[in-house]
Amino acid sequence: MICLGIEGTAHSIGVGIVKEFKKKCKVLTNLIKIYRSEQGGIHPREAANHHAIYLADLIKESLKKAKVEARDIDLVSFSRGPGLGPCLRTAATAARALSLTLNKPIIGVNHCVAHLEIGRGTLDGCNDPVLLYTSGANTQVIAFAEGRYRVFGETLDIGIGNCLDKFGRTVGLDFPAGPKIEQLALNGGNYYNLPYTIKGMDIAFSGLLTAAEQYYKKHKNLEDICYSIQETTFAALTEVTERAMAHTEKNEVLLGGGVAANKRLRNMVATMASERGASFYVPSKDLCIDNGAMIAWLGILMYNSGVHMEIKDSIIDQRFRTDMVDVTWRE
Ligand code: AMP
Ligand code: MG
Questions:
Q1: Which of 2, 44, 234, 235 could join 84 in a cystine, given CB atoms 3.0 to 4.6 angstroms apart?
Q2: Would residue 33 be called left, alpha or beta, if left means φ above 0 and alpha means ψ between -120 and 50 degrees?
């Protein structure tokens, strides 16, 4: 079975074509175009316009690169949510048009669950992980328990990527600031005591963000502050992930989302995993960030497990929670 997936929850518009092979996911193409605004951040309507402009060409290019004829597509899937309404709607409308034109079934999938399933689908040995999903807008610790993907911990305010990008904007770093903060932190070493906020299993970043901005105004030592931001936020993320692993008795941990590119975060989570005798997994960068291949793969899993969607039901859901998904494809 071959599926074409369209991702459009926020700043990225992605088209992926994947094929199922021996229950694993083979990625044929995975193309992404990223909207960037002049001021940083995302204007939902502008991002949706950006997606509308590029989508048709992305689909054509994807088919060409994958060496797949449009008629060979068996299924069309799209990111149903969570995300920004105008962006979701643009991707869903394109998916509906494609499904009707090709006369092939359509499925809307949960974006957060797709981040987890692409790890299971592409990485050998990654079967039942706790996912630490760290992206711009989302930060969640997710694992499968009692028939559903459950959120064991999450941000109470902003996503970790958003925290890094906002700090970057304040101190004059280009968007996205995450990679620049990572580079600057390599030259830092003096630790500033920033607020470390965990409530139960949830995390908050906005207090730390304000404190970091105030430190910067006073001390101007950007490298040390970047170092301190990373050490504090990543330690909190690792702590919650470890507690979820202990609670669920799982011995695999998977990273996902754009911030998973960060070597310090990888290193901290990998150390935690090895100290627990657990395995650590991280997909290739193009499968960590928002991408169409993960949407396509989850479409295949759902379709093969008997989920069928009518066009009239292929609506978006801005607040589509991870734990709302009926997981029909796992035992
Ligand atoms: P996503 O929302 O999953 O597409 O991820 C985008 C976020 O990842 C942005 O907030 C980036 O700043 C962040 N990001 C990308 N690369 C890195 C990195 N190397 N270190 C930290 N954050 C990063
Ligand atoms: Mg994402």
A1: 44
A2: beta
Task: Please confirm whether the linkage preceding 129 is cis (ω < 30° from 0).
Answer: no
The DSSP code for 109 is E
pLDDT at residue 41, as a whole number: 79
Instruction: Enumerate the β-bridge partners of residue 255.
Output: 132
pLDDT in tens, 77-87: 999 999 999 99
Beta carbon of 7 within 6 Å of any ligand 1 atom: no
DSSP, residue by residue, 32-97: EEE---TTSS--HHHHHHHHHHHHHHHHHHHHHHHT--GGG--EEEEEEESS-HHHHHHHHHHHHH
Give the pLDDT mean for 290-297.
Answer: 98
Ligand 1 pocket check for 34: Cβ under 6 Å: no
Domains and CATH numbers, the chain: 2-116+287-324 (3.30.420.40), 127-282 (3.30.420.40)
Q: Which of 115, 174, 232, 259 to mutate to test the pocket of ligand 1 (most atoms within 8 A of CB)?
A: 259
Among the listed residues 60, 120, 50, the one whose alpha carbon sits nearest the alpha carbon of residue 294: 120
